[in-house]
């Protein structure tokens, strides 16, 4: 509780100080729209508020919503949710030395996480050093997850329940980017602390990578002393789009204790492919991501702990109106559609040879209105089918969600 009070006081003092500064000294720094941006640029490609002669920029975003969902006719009724409040603090320490931190308060203050806190030292466009708490670049969503950038209230299932969304760890690495006419080439590679055995020993009773996010010790020590390797390469072309290929893998179990070998090294491997583009003529934005997970599960665990998992989502966003609405001169009205699928167990029962199910399929149509590019008001309808291990008739979840998200 003392930590919570201290954080609250610091935040209040910060905003009180800003409020007392002459408005002419404040400047809003928005995202760069000249150069082609990749998903790896998302960490700095945000609006910040800067103050004259003070080398620190502030920013953040907020999102809240209402929803009424029911599963097989059973509903918890009307639910109002304050999903997250995120604060950014950035500083240009020197000409080519930058710092950025991202602190997120989820579900009120149910969870408080430092999602990013690193120093970047730039040596060359193709060789830059990053150290601290880094965001593991697996897929595209893990890096580019800010709520105001999306037309959907819920984050993708494959990115949050199969992969650990906003997965970050302490470590170091290198990254680089090179422009060649219409092309952009980029890479990232990091060594960080990694997963622990909670990915199989958890309350979900299944192979569940996000369970390792509950281990706060990963920010001060490695569970087994073996680094997690994360690497990504991306290729972008103006008026065509971006494609990214990424890998994340390492040992997740404690295989020795005080020098005594207690188990073999059990590894987890994650592969992801992402693609985004804006289709010509209609300006339709298409964004897709697919990921595959392979885990060396001990034989002592039952078959319903998946050794192979697969998930994907595809978003389509179509602008249908651009113009002045209620005095907002550059507002945009979009229609959107998300389809998503996750199979938590792609194996077969040894006794029968039939496929082990436990999968989920969802379709989410929606409408969104952006009075400005940095604020979105969203209406979604979710329809979801979830099948158990044995392939029984799927449980069906359906309902409406209305919410907003905005940078500040």
Q: How would you describe the overall organization of this protein?
A:
The chain has 408 residues and is mainly beta. It has one domain (19-407): Porin, CATH 2.40.160. The chain has two helices and 21 strands. It has a 16-stranded antiparallel β-barrel. The longest helix is centred in the N-terminal third of the chain and has 18 residues, at 2-19. The relative contact order is 0.13.
Write the layout of secondary structure elements.
Layout: H1 2-19, E1 26-29, E2 48-51, E3 54-71, E4 74-75, E5 79-94, E6 97-106, E7 111-124, E8 127-135, H2 157-162, E9 168-180, E10 183-192, E11 228-237, E12 241-251, E13 256-257, E14 260-261, E15 267-279, E16 284-295, E17 308-325, E18 328-343, E19 359-372, E20 375-387, E21 395-407
Antiparallel strand pairs: 1-2, 2-3, 3-4, 3-5, 3-21, 5-6, 6-7, 7-8, 8-9, 9-10, 10-11, 11-12, 12-15, 13-14, 15-16, 16-17, 17-18, 18-19, 19-20, 20-21
Task: List low-pLDDT spans.
Answer: 1-26
Beta-sheet strand percentage? over 45%
The CATH class, by name, is Mainly Beta
The largest beta-sheet arranges its strands as 3-5-6-7-8-9-10-11-12-15-16-17-18-19-20-21
Quaternary organisation: single chain
> What is the count of structural domains?
1
Computed CA radius of gyration, to the nearest angstrom: 22 Å
